[in-house]
Design goal:
The structure is a single chain. This protein is of the alpha/beta class. 41% of the residues lie in helices and 16% in strands. The termini are far apart.
Amino acid sequence: MSRAELFVGSLLNAVARPAPALAGRMAFALFRNPVRRGKVLPAERAVHERATTEELTVNGKRVRVYRWGTGERPVLLVHGWQSRASRYAAFVPYLEALGLTPVSFDAPGHGSSGGRATTILEYREIIGRLQRTYGAFHSVVAHSLGATGALLALRGEVKTGRLVTVAAVKDFGHFPDEFARILGLGEGLREDLRDRIEHRLFAEVTAPWEEFDATCRPEEIDVPMLIIHDTDDDMVPVAQARALKAAHGDRAELVVTSGLGHRKILAEPAIVDTALEFIAR
């Protein structure tokens, strides 16, 4: 736990004693809003700047969309929390060489998009809108929260030939649990946060914890799947990947690495090669 996380967690726990409702609102606001926006890294800039960009609007928020190519045989690249589309720069030239069109977006509150926050329901909406524009996806590659959103979208109208997940969160319930763990929140605040998520953030969803869990009703996500996860991921335990593999059985392949963590894994050349080999089969 960093000093900042220790301070924030201690503050919330202290406020919760005399004013639990206020502390609950504070924790909920922190949970919903990314602390920072990811910037385009120097190694990503050349690929990022040659993308064709366009915009769409979701819930009044401007969403930046990126495309490299004509739009034929689209491959959707979905980033995670506090990240952005440019993190897939290592994938783009290789996908183009395969005759595919990489398509990605910055989620609301991320990268160059508008808004202050997003939800996996907005991820699902954006992915569905992009399919209506480009047609069914040849493949989808998704990282972290992006994988949660992609798996949710695949329960519905979204279609793809293959899915690659990297450091995937198989169920949304992991996020509030990990948030509370990192900040060291007391049990009362933990329960309050889950209640606010269920009844305010996702009030229109029946049983959101089950609906947003890709190991529940796995037959609804009937797609060949490559699951990549690192044992040294300090944000999402590899148990999430193993549970995803167990639920989806023979249609899923599991690749477990070590020493790459949660973020560095996405640009690791060996991981890019493994994902591209699966996509190109």
